[in-house]
## 1
Amino acid sequence: KRKFDIKEVRSDFPILNEKVHNQSLIYLDNGATSQKPQTVIDAIDNYYQHFNSNVHRGAHALSDKATELFENARVKVQNFIRANSREEIIWTRGTTESINLVAQTWGRENIGAGDEIIVTTLEHHSNIVPWQILCESVGARLLPVNIKTNGELDYEHFTQLLSAKTKLVAVGHISNALGVINPVEDMIKAAHQVGAKVLIDGAQAAPHLVIDVQQLDCDFYAFSGHKMFAPTGIGVLYGKRDLLDAMPPWHGGGEMIEKVSFSGTTFNKLPYKFEAGTPNIEGSIAMAAAIDYLEQFDRDGMTEYEMDLINYATEKAQSIPEMKIIGSDCNKTSVLSFIIEGCHSQDVGMILDQQGIAVRTGHHCAMPLMDALDLKGTIRASFSFYNTKQEVDKLFEALEKAKQFLM
Ligand code: PMP
């Protein structure tokens, strides 16, 4: 394994040398999207310089090479999340598309009038709205699990909601707004006991945790490339093979068929049944490069480094009386979501931006969560392994300035 040397690691990410408003960029918006190492950028470049061709056509050498790289990337993802077979890895545009795919295929086949889907108050809109659309059209009910005042999921409420009517539990592995890690292992076991299936929204987990879908025993797992150091426009849906096999296709078109005639069409086998049209070939190949990048290090060591950063930031925050951290005493990842009493989050974000510091402010696509916390929004600094304690110090210097200016 490569030694984790922060100086070297930072030099792998060219964007970290950028200036913003004439200041060195301090990128603390990793929850929204991650930056890309040079190896990922090179993988895209290399593909277009040497291998660009359509896949699965078997027509010529270049196409064969592109197909090989594309399919090797699928196996790389399979191993990355410890899936049982490559057929269980469906390429999508991202988490959002993965969840919609399940809602519109498995959902329409398996959820009917009077059935119930459980989500949590912590969900990103993309793990709420597809289920609302489904429920509306089939007459099912969407039930949200409450949270406690500290931002943690109310597990007891979850067990109370579970019943024979529950057909699906759709839950985020890690909350994007607060960084809180949900007890998904227990939730999956409990859901299976009542015969429900479980979809995990892993958008925020893929960059931080080692994922093992077989150990989790989840039925579906969705994540996006761009949050785990790969490009935008590529993502993954994992599903257990028997479920995927039984599901009808979603998008119709090329690649997803075996035979087409006007008297009827037969669909391709897994995983192609769910991959209509020309896929994001360079995205898949660059995703494999991102996985290679991550896996050259000891991932537990990286998590430790990130936790060290968040603990350092949390301690600093706790010494500021006006600063209120949401979810600080929960099991969580490297996210500091907070408000400064007396200041609008947006105004703070603007002042930070002027000092070269990128954070996200607002509802973080989790409006029901903000409602439950009785907040309009928070300021979210989300750290990655390429951030440093010096950057945390600069964040707090900038927050001090913001406070002086706004209060
Ligand atoms: N779920 C969570 C928890 C997220 O953080 C995000 C992205 N912010 C999504 C889903 C949606 O991901 P994407 O926009 O890449 O489809």
## 2
Amino acid sequence: LRKEAAERIAQAQDLSDLNQLRVQYLGKKGKVQDLMKNMKNLSKEEKPQFGKDVNALKQHVASRIEEKREELAESEMNMRIEREKIDITLPGRRQTAGNLHPLHIVTQELEDLFIGLGYQVIEGNDIVDDEYCFERANIPKDHPARAMQDSLYIDENNLLRTHTTAIQMKVLEQAAPNLPIKVVCPGKVYRRDDDDATHSHQFMQMEGLVVDRHITLADLKGTLEFLARKMFGQDRQIRFRPSYFPFTEPSVEVDVTCHICNGKGCPTCKGTGWIEILGAGEVHPNVLRMAGYDPEKCSGFAFGVGIERIAMLKYGVDDIRHFYTNDKRFEETFKRFE
Ligand code: PHE
């Protein structure tokens, strides 16, 4: 038995093999314990010697197992060290830092510019009720202007806002009747539209709103001229063209002289020298009244600028879908503008 045990211990491949052997030989029902059963067949004189021999065997096997355990443990450790070896001469993996999204860069730039002029930045919810998106903006249910903005309704009363003018209406209501109001409201807006190079069912706007005593179109013009020059260069001129929005009166469309050809005419401005950048106007008296202001005592201007449009012009992006398809190669090119 001693020899058999020694051989099998020597052959053990790993610690779990060895453990099985320990149970087989030294366990309560193991082979060494079995030997003890023979005790009863022995004479009184033989018993002590037999007991001693079995004990010696037991110790012998136990110490063999212990030796083997140490040997196996060491070789397993060596194998692990070998396996987990780190080659410090390998070149490291390069960590690439992310960068800001171009729409974020433009939004931040506009926010900074207006904060510098004393404006507050206010955001709102993407889902709004009909009342703030349309009614308060002087667009009643049967008004044809509702068709100007194909909307995405969630249920009878709630929709994804079609313009940041919805935030403007909340701001007005919450501030009334206090003066002055000076805010910009950036955010995503949504319209039922087929996506192509210049249309997206989701895009970003920034609304501007100023209400105080004696605010005129001249204030609007000065403000937007400042915006145009900050965003497109110090030589830029702007012009107002008459337009229509239900929530402003008078309403204007604002053009800036082309930053590519400086107003001479090029493909970017379709040869006209001018590029349309936003819609604006004097806040309609009905809008002021509905929010709780007296249009006899104050007036205001508002504008809504498309962030994608500014980004496309500024960076020469030819397809609005680039902003939403998450192509890292496109986004990484904006790192230098951060
Ligand atoms: N809400 C208008 C739009 O989405 C933009 C606008 C805002 C026009 C404020 C005038 C005043 O087109």
